[in-house]
Specification:
alpha+beta; Immunoglobulin-like; 8-stranded parallel β-barrel; globular; 3 domains; 710 residues; 31% strand; binds alpha-D-galactopyranose; TIM Barrel; Beta-galactosidase, Chain A, domain 5
């Protein structure tokens, strides 16, 4: 497409993003499938001609990247400002466009009357087809300026997009999909939990009526931010729709003096003409190439053992040795000492903040357990919850003023803990020195599970200002500081499970604890939801106890293994309770994982469109010569026979050998297809277009199929 001064084009070989600048504010004219050389701006311009409606504006106000009151926009302003003059009516006009590279542009706008500059920085990542966009506001005037709202760039979307798919949840059941039809007005989700939150994931898909995993047009949006946030999808009366996401700022959080600026978090956006699967593939590619630690491409992800659901606070050296013995014998490679190792921490009522080894429990420090774990051939990791303090702690007794609070308003307890004010430099320094001292004393620690187990209800810092913005940045800075002092240490983001999973924290961390629920059945929908934006290798998933501690559900070892395997696998139970049959299975499951994690952690993930009876997915290697697919039977069917299983993502004319690789023995009440097709070969075409008749299985059975090109 040819370039004209009034238009700015960003193209990848898959998509085009075209901005119209003719009316003095940059706005999206076209965003979708790549346009070819025959198409040009004039055509788009003519085809977008709209009539003056009855009883309405002569000319519609464009949905610019930051549509504002000053532009006459009557939807939600992209920017809301306040000062003692007239910043409320900001309406900036383009003054410059800097296209630093063919895939990168910065629109610079200014409101000269009010002394405000607005920049939109947009980059289209050419290999993943993900757009990274942010908005910056700078105060040019002498008056202090309050930023009430400054959303990331607003995206106008076409009107055949009528559905909104978002992700909601709660503790131990995160990332549940929810789909609604757009309606006249705004669909809004706001999060004020002070962290990404379990309930409202800052990500949304908008799509046409017919989109599913493998077809239809869809757009995905994710705000990379671990604090408060807002998502708005609005259908305006004149049949225009936009998506707007940004940080939800509290009160007077952002005050800008002359020359100072506020930049929104990055918004990550992508488009697919072929359904949700391809959209996720774009996001996964982006994460793998830009946010994922480089070692992920060269080193296999270890098999974790985490002590939490095994022993909770019941720590002692002998117990740890027993756990290490058994878990190493079934193949664990990284032993993570969870909560309970530090001074006085024998329950969740006490000691957060006192980050020194509990000498009563570990009189010789952690060396004996670390050495023992290493002797078993495992690495060692440890749990911290740096941002929190229990009132019953030495730290709080010494510094009760170090917590976030709000004067005159009583604190509300949440897991017996309060939130430290990391915006005080002395608090961040204290935490850094404590964490760093442990890591320096024990250089064999290679992993931190960094937890954050409460919402932030009282958000005031030492200056009496609401401080979630600064607190979130201070958390990022503290993690970055720990990492730069101890670069070999990997960090997992945990917040009572999946309460802090987003690209903001991912820029600083290496794994996420997807959910506190180790219930394999719940995990299927949790991991499915998370996989819309996150590749499997980042999602921690553990084989939990036989009777799930959170749901009480009893799930077979076979199924627990099958579900944990399509992720960053680990185990988390008291292994002393395992029967020898369980141990054999676990060992076999871990071996299967080790043999295939290279594929699972680098291949293309496919969610299959499933009915309510099963949750199905697969991973296909880049060269499409190998694949692993899972059928997870979760609900009894109303039919006498299960459905056919149609594979995806294969090459039509390749011939694949079929093997059932999990479970290693399956009890069938009558012979099924499985014995007939084991080790047979089939074309990719029949596997995809004809599919296979699934066997009749007990509910809660997971089958894993391997396809290998012959
Ligand atoms: C949170 C985490 C758990 C565990 C406990 C320890 O709930 O999500 O995995 O680490 O804290 O207190």
């Amino acid at each position: 497409m040819s370039q004209a001064a009034d238009f700015i084009d960003l193209h990848s070989d898959y998509m085009s993003l075209i901005f119209d600048c003719r009316r003095g504010t940059p706005c999206i004219l076209y965003f979708g499938k790549r346009l070819n050389q025959q198409s040009n701006h004039r055509m788009l311009e003519v085809l977008s001609t709209r009539q003056e409606p009855k009883c309405a504006l002569a000319e519609e106000v464009p949905i610019s990247l930051s549509p504002c009151l000053g532009n006459g926009f009557t939807g939600s302003p992209g920017i809301t400002l306040n000062n003692t003059a007239n910043a409320w009516s900001v309406g900036a006009s383009l003054v410059d466009i800097k296209q630093t590279a063919p895939n990168e542009v910065c629109f610079i706008s200014e409101d000269r009357v009010r002394g405000i500059e607005v920049n939109h920085q947009i980059t289209l990542d050419l290999s993943s087809h993900v757009v990274i966009a942010n908005t910056l506001v700078r105060n040019l005037s002498q008056q202090p300026l309050t930023v009430t709202d400054c959303a990331a760039p607003t995206f106008a979307i076409p009107d055949h997009v009528t559905k909104v798919l978002s992700f909601e949840g709660r503790w131990a059941l995160e990332f549940q999909q929810s789909t609604i039809d757009l309606f006249l007005g705004a669909y809004v989700r706001e999060n004020r939990k002070g962290k990404t939150s379990h309930d409202n994931f800052p990500g949304v898909l908008v799509h046409d009526e017919f989109a599913n995993e493998s077809q239809g047009e869809c757009y995905g949006f994710h705000l990379g931010w671990s604090g408060n946030h807002r998502t708005r999808v609005e259908l305006l009366p004149e049949q225009r729709t936009y998506v707007q996401m940004g940080e939800l700022l509290g009160g007077e959080e952002i005050q800008l003096k002359q020359g100072e600026s506020y930049q929104s978090p990055n918004l990550y956006v992508s488009y697919s003409a072929n359904g949700f699967g391809e959209l996720s593939h774009h996001f996964h590619t982006y994460v793998r190439q830009n946010l994922r630690r480089s070692e992920y491409t060269t080193n296999s992800r270890p098999v974790f053992y985490n002590t939490w659901e095994g022993i909770y606070f019941d720590h002692n050296l002998e117990t740890m040795k027993q756990l290490a013995d058994i878990t190493a014998s079934v193949g664990a490679q990284r032993f993570v000492l969870d909560d309970g190792w530090f001074k006085g921490r024998n329950s969740d009522t006490t000691s957060l903040g006192d980050w020194t080894v509990d000498e009563k429990v570990y009189p010789q420090g952690l060396s004996p357990i670390i050495d023992y774990v290493k002797l078993q051939g495992m690495e060692f990791g440890i749990w911290f919850e740096p941002e929190m303090v229990n009132p019953d702690s030495d730290l709080y007794r010494a510094h009760p003023e170090w917590v976030l609070s709000s004067e005159g308003n009583p604190q509300i307890m949440f897991r017996n803990q309060l939130v430290l004010d990391l915006t005080r430099q002395e608090v961040s320094d204290y935490l850094f020195s404590k964490i760093s001292a442990v890591l320096s004393a024990y250089p064999d620690i290679v992993f931190i599970k960094w937890d954050m187990n409460r919402d932030i209800n009282h958000t005031g810092n030492a200056n009496g200002k609401s401080a979630i913005h600064l607190q979130t940045k201070a958390v990022y800075a503290l993690i970055a500081r720990v990492k730069s002092a101890h670069p070999h240490v990997e960090i997992e983001s945990c917040s009572s499970g999946g309460g802090r999973i987003d690209y903001g924290i991912l820029a600083h961390t290496d794994r996420v604890w997807t959910s506190d629920s180790n219930d394999a059945l719940d995990r299927l929908s949790i991991q499915r939801g998370a996989s819309f934006f996150f590749p499997l290798e980042l999602l921690g998933s553990h084989v939990g106890p036989r009777d799930c501690h959170i749901t009480g559900r009893r799930i077979s070892m076979d199924t627990r293994i099958a579900v944990a395997l399509f992720a960053s696998m680990g185990m988390e139970m008291d292994p002393r309770e395992l029967t020898s049959e369980d141990k054999d299975k676990l060992k076999a499951g871990v071996e299967l994982y080790k043999a295939h994690r290279g594929l699972i952690h680098s291949g293309r993930h496919h969610r299959l469109d499933s009915n309510e009876n099963s949750i199905d997915y697969g991973v296909v290697s880049h060269c499409k010569t190998q694949a692993l697919f899972a059928y997870n039977h979760v609900l009894e069917s109303r039919r006498t026979q299960p459905k056919r299983y149609r594979f995806v993502g294969l090459v039509k004319n390749y011939e694949y050998r079929f093997n059932l690789v999990w479970p290693t023995s399956l009890k069938e009440y009558s012979p099924s297809i499985l014995s007939k097709i084991e080790n047979q070969t089939f074309s990719g075409e029949v596997l995809m277009q004809y599919g296979m008749q699934l066997p009749i299985t007990f509910v809660q059975t997971s089958l894993i199929f391997k396809l290998h090109k012959v």
